[in-house]
Write a structure and sequence with these properties.
homodimer, Metallo-beta-lactamase, Chain A, six-stranded mixed beta sheet, 24% helix, Mito_Persulfide_Diox (chains A, B), oxidoreductase (chains A, B)
Chain lengths: 229, 229
């Protein structure tokens, strides 16, 4: 599977293009509304056919470009069932598999940041959304976020994957682009080094972060798949 | 060879860590002064031994972190001979080879943005500095930049590499992280699609870009390898 990482400077969001080199069937993970023109042109230049528009969750910090990309380029839009989305083509659940040519994308339900987080797993790599980020994890204080669920997703699902699995997050704020499961098990500031649930929970309860600036616009916008009119 | 891409949001600079998985010998390409703490910690967590600090050129938009990293972590600092650097350990020229374990890093002299641009080539990938960027190339209007040299570097050196060679630039301003030689030959806005030298030169002569904000600080800072004491 070929992987191309794209970045939105305004919201620090990573978008990913995945494609099968033989069939050119492609998936777009977590597109950003303001970057739809860029992504469309790039997808055309690469000669790809969009089969899936995959969302890792209903984002609170930016509006997805998945709906507009679907209109322009086709493809089925995938969000986790718990989102309650009425604009997705597929409401995915843990264990679902999407195929690009002979290559498989597996759905792992990894809630904690929200109740609808998906990690998309391919051979050798996971796209972890806001669940696992480089040395970090998503906040748990809105959108049905939950410390217990996050700790379970990190330590019982993701950290159990092979250590050399590459980790591609939905955001980064320090200039990291990727990590590995082995690194995060050891060095993740919030859940690494066998931190207990109590220690993890204390960290998460004391982040004192302001609400995302665009949450009041982003969440309803994403419930419309980014199709705002 | 393992590759890790790091980003500096303030100057839109990509830093790269390269390492040989067996020996853990590593090279750092184009570090940024303000990111030395981040890079040092990351290198330590990855368990790497810095053997080389590779500069693609004397930058005009940021100050290198190579000197400070050398003090903290060791390694030989490499700049092209044309730079006239007095703080580098190795003044490299075209054809030089640096080894990390059994893996080789080849020096290609690809001037045009400056007179001292190096593309570092490993198996399957090139780190092209400000010579070739995604759909773009470096400006040629200061620091002994030269349209003819840039056109030659792009079309006669880089575009002659295998089309599936991955391209990792020193900067990006649109959220692209990498490309391939095949893509750039076809889609590069300035030199792709068999553009003539005349067309290329007209584009380059009409960019009308302001000088980099930090050029008066960055160039002398980089001539000191970032050791500003």
């Amino acid at each position: 599977m070929k992987i191309r990482q794209l970045f939105d400077y305004d919201t620090w969001t990573y978008t990913y293009l995945l494609w099968d080199e033989t069939t050119k069937e492609a998936a777009v993970i977590d597109s950003v509304l303001e970057k739809v023109d860029r992504d469309e042109q790039h997808i055309k230049e690469l000669g790809l056919n969009v089969k899936y528009l995959l969302e890792t969750h209903i984002h609170a910090d930016h509006i997805t470009g998945a709906g507009p990309l679907r209109k322009r380029m086709g493809g089925q839009l995938v969000v986790h069932k718990n989102s309650g989305s009425e604009c997705a083509d597929i409401l995915a659940v843990d264990g679902d598999v999407f195929k690009l040519g002979d290559q498989e994308i597996h759905v792992l339900h990894t809630p904690g940041h929200t109740n609808n987080d998906i990690t998309y797993q391919i051979e050798g790599a996971v796209f972890t959304g806001d669940t696992l980020m480089v040395r970090d994890c998503g906040r748990t204080d809105f959108q049905l976020g939950d410390n217990k669920a996050m700790y379970h997703s990190l330590t019982e699902i993701l950290f159990k994957l092979p250590e050399d699995t590459m980790v591609f997050p939905a955001h980064d704020y320090k200039g990291f682009s990727q990590s590995t499961i082995g690194e995060e098990k050891q060095f993740n500031h919030r859940a690494g080094s066998n931190k207990s649930y109590e220690d993890f929970s204390t960290i998460m309860d004391n982040l004192n972060l302001p609400n995302p600036k665009r949450i009041d616009i982003a969440v309803p916008g994403n419930m419309k798949c980014g199709d705002l009119d």
